[in-house]
Amino acid sequence: IEYAKLYAAEAEPLEGFGEVPEIIQIFLIHRPANNIPYATVEEELVGEFVKYSVKDGKEVNFLRRDSEAGQKCCTFQHWVYEKTNGNLLVTDLQGVGMKLTDVGIATLAKGYKGFKGNCSFSFIEQFRALHQCNEYCEMLGLKSLRTTHQKQRKATPTKSKNLPNSSTVKKMVPKKAREPRDFISSEH
């Protein structure tokens, strides 16, 4: 949420940028009388629920290129990537319009700045390879990843990887219809 606030502070004053994606807070509640004593709650999102990127890295949603919210989500990913020198990437961007929920985090190194990360670091490599800058990236003065990625590929020979299939994922679900996710503690 803090990166989203910093992004908004940098992007909102720019002429022509407009509304900025917002990550809504999720709260953990304790229900001692319940079989599952912990649950999460968040603001109800009403409208068309769209996945702008997916957590498993197997799909690329082309709505990212076709909608303002999608382009701004891609720009937010690029901005975080650049601000963290490629060490962190927000993933699984989904929500209604500019309100995002349940985002994922991929880190290049375990525990980067206290972030555990809940997505594979391979998403960072995939992002570098697939991201296409848009007008909002340009407004923020973000560096093209194409040049960076091409230089890295020339310097480091890698095995070719199959790129994920492309598809669009949409669903219409009011937030209140979603079941709360249970809190599961795991120790590694």
UniProtKB/TrEMBL annotation:
Keyword Nuclease carried by entry: no
SMART domains: Alpha_kinase
Originating organism: Junco hyemalis
Annotated Alpha-type protein kinase domain residues: 1-145
Domain of life: Eukaryota
Family: Belongs to the protein kinase superfamily. Alpha-type protein kinase family. ALPK subfamily.
Function: Protein kinase that recognizes phosphorylation sites in which the surrounding peptides have an alpha-helical conformation. Regulates cardiac development and cardiomyocyte differentiation by negatively regulating Wnt/beta-catenin signaling.
Keywords (A to Z) from UniProt: Cell membrane, Disulfide bond, Immunoglobulin domain, Kinase, Membrane, Repeat, Serine/threonine-protein kinase, Transferase
Name of the protein described by the UniProt record: Alpha-protein kinase 2
GO cellular component terms attached to this protein's record: basolateral plasma membrane
Stored Pfam families: Alpha_kinase
Region (Disordered): 148-188
Cellular localization per UniProt: Basolateral cell membrane
Enzyme Commission number: 2.7.11.1
PROSITE patterns, sorted: ALPHA_KINASE (PS51158)
